[in-house]
Amino acid sequence: MSIALLGVMAMQYYFIRETYRQKSTLFDESVNASLAKVASIVERNEVLDLVKTQRRLNREKNEAEQRKQDMLAEQLKIQHKIQQLRTQQYDYYQSFKNEEDKLKAAFPNLIYIENWFYETYIRRPQYKRLIEIDVIQDLIPGTTVYQESVVVSARRELPRVNARDDSVRYIVADIDPFMKKASQYVVATLPPQANAQIAFELKELEDRLARLNKEFLANNAATIFDTLAVTGGKRSTVLEEAMFGIELANKPLRDRININMVHALLKEELKARDIQAPFNIEIRDSQKLIYHTSNIASLNTHEQPTRYTTALFKGDVNAPTGRLSIYFPNKKAVIFDTMSYLILPTLALLALLIGSFAYTLSIIFRQKKISEMKTDFINNMTHEFKTPVATIMIASESLRDPEIASNENRVNKLANIIYDENVRLGSHIERVLNIARLEKENLKIERTNVHINPLVEGVLDSMQLQLQKANGILHHDLAATHDLVVGDELHLSNVFFNLVDNAIKYSPSCPEITVKTYNNKGNIMISVADKGLGMTKDQQEKIFDQFYRIPTGNIHNVKGFGLGLSYVNDIVKRLDGKIQVKSEKDKGTVFEIILPLKNKNDN
Q1: Helix 340-399 crosses helix 408-440 at what angle (to 10 degrees)?
Q2: Beta bridge partners of 512
Q3: What is the DSSP pairing of strand 131-139 with strand 168-176?
Q4: pLDDT by residue (tens digit) across 517-530?
């Protein structure tokens, strides 16, 4: 049973753990889908704003469009060449960007530094000690939110050393999260972002194109887009949209993001997917953190939360310029909350199973105890029956002796012994049969009028010889003025006999017994007190159990089956009465029987 219970508990644990994993996966998918949709909405809104602006410009230039076509022949060649050079420059920049992305992916904490700073402080070893890398907090203008940024500075200003090349350099810092300082750093160097030769040629061509544009404006040409459109055979609106796209990509990310709108969109999308837990937002550009929110829950947690990230403005000409991140400080609590409908019934059923297991064990131990008590009862009963049987056998064998049979006095004496032992056997048998009848609920109880005082007095008279043999003292005060009850005279006499008999047996020397009757609130109270061995509280709770016998230590003359008080308790209850016991160890015991009087209301 223990192995089965442990197996069930292990299976329940495995089931709950797998359910948690599945819920966690669904949670991650929902959050990532919400992030992707919000990023798409932000980019779409920006594009819609661009389209609105473009439409307005197009309406203003429709009338002048036809006058531009024949003025752009020469500009076409220049534009074509510029486009080729820009493509080459773009390929060169993309190569640089790939290297830069690899570096950023490997080292998230990158800090851009100017080349003059590198030449002045880092390249010269004697001045490296002047460098400081700190994490500072700045208040976002117009808000009460602080943002963290990493700043590289020098403790002392030195004359600048000019840069030797156009390489792009970053400091990779190991920042202590508690001290907010960098304990160590290394410098990562990337090739220049642009090819100098291509840039020079582009500058010349663009200057030349600018001069042509002046001529174009002098001839009532509206914009450079018109010139390029005529030269390339394209509509000017297409070129304007491309240039607007490049211009937007070059704007700071902070100017392209509406923080309040992003927060509201995220909250709405998560709510649509049944996620209403508090969360934190981070927005980063290619260089640093530009926005961050924190709540109290995130400050109190010591666990590293799972971060969900998506790119912002994926449609930009260059690589995406920003990253939108979100994380939940109490993700586990959110997932467990969604599993409450499963966990609570599971725990309830498990508790029920454990309770049933414990109850079964208690029944097993109780049955074991009862079995041991019945075994003791059978052994005791065998001993109690064996003694009178042996006495009868010896007396019977003596009667067979002719010499004894001829002596009338000896024959009468042996006959009396046989009779007494038969009575003793009958008494034992009757007691066992009464208990058996009580258990089977077929013990016949007569309900007649019985006067308690005469009944108690008769029992005490019948026990005078037993008291004299034990050198006992009997005090009795039958003071009840009303003693008529409805009951069974035989069984009530047996009840009183058992109580007095126990008082005699459990008094180690010279029993002193007090029997009283008195009236109280329409009842008759019968009290049997002794000054014998007494009982502990634990023993008092068990004395009415079948087969239970109080240990008597070195006193071995206490005989019985452990059935007397069980019988007494059952008879009293059947007669609508109560029995109470008060006892102290080595000070004595008081049994008190409460029986309702006949015509109780008249008293």
Answers
A1: 160
A2: 473
A3: unpaired
A4: 999 888 999 999 99
The pairing of strands 322-327 and 146-154 is: unpaired
Strands in 7-159 per DSSP E: 110-113, 131-139, 146-154
Count the Cβ atoms, other than its own, within 10 Å of residue 590.
17
**Contact predicate 310/239, CB 8 Å:** no
φ and ψ of 165, to 5 deg? -150, -175
Rounded mean pLDDT, 335-363: 81
- As a whole number of angstroms, the distance between CA 457 and CA 485 comes to 16
What span, in angstroms and rounded, lies between the C-alpha atoms of 423 and 279? 91
- 171 phi/psi in degrees, rounded to 5: -100, 125
> How many CA atoms lie less than 13 Å away from 528 in the CB half-sphere?
23
- Continuous H helices in 166-295: 196-218, 224-232, 236-250, 253-256, 259-272
The mean pLDDT of the chain is: 77
Task: Note every long-range contact of 379-386, with CB atoms under 8 Å and residues 24 or more positions apart, other chains counting.
Answer: 380/549, 380/559, 380/560, 380/561, 380/562, 381/428, 381/432, 381/561, 384/428, 384/559, 384/561, 385/425, 385/428
Q: Is residue 221 pLDDT above 50, yes or no?
A: no
Give the number of other CB atoms < 10 A from CB of residue 136.
12
CB atoms within 10 A of CB 366: 10
Encoded tokens for 517: 């009757």
Distance, in Å, from the CA atom of 462 to the CA atom of 214, rounded to the nearest integer, reads 145
Rounded CA-CA distance 377/150 in Å is 89
Q: Which tokens hold the place of 459?
A: 């029992």
316 DSSP 8-state letter: S
**How many Å apart are CA 390 and CA 53, to the nearest integer?**
126
Copy the structure tokens of residue 29. 């998918």
Q: What is the DSSP letter of 278?
A: -
Tokens of 273: 């997917």
**What are 239's two structure tokens?**
């070129």
- Which element (helix H / strand E) includes 449? strand 448-451
Domain ranges of the chain: 2-51+253-338, 65-221, 340-425, 444-602
Tell me which fold the domain 2-51+253-338 belongs to: Beta-Lactamase (3.30.450)
Is residue 188 pLDDT above 80, yes or no?
Answer: yes
**Contact at 8 Å (CB) between 174 and 184?**
yes
Q: What sign does the CA torsion over 75, 81, 85, 87 have?
A: positive
Structure tokens at 200: 């020079």
Give the amino acid at 210.
A
Q: Confirm or reject CATH 3.30.565.10 for domain 444-602, answering yes or no.
A: yes
161-165, 452-456, 546-550: range with lowest mean pLDDT: 546-550
For the ranges 161-165, 322-326, 401-405, 551-555, which has the lowest average pLDDT? 551-555
Residue 67 DSSP class:
G
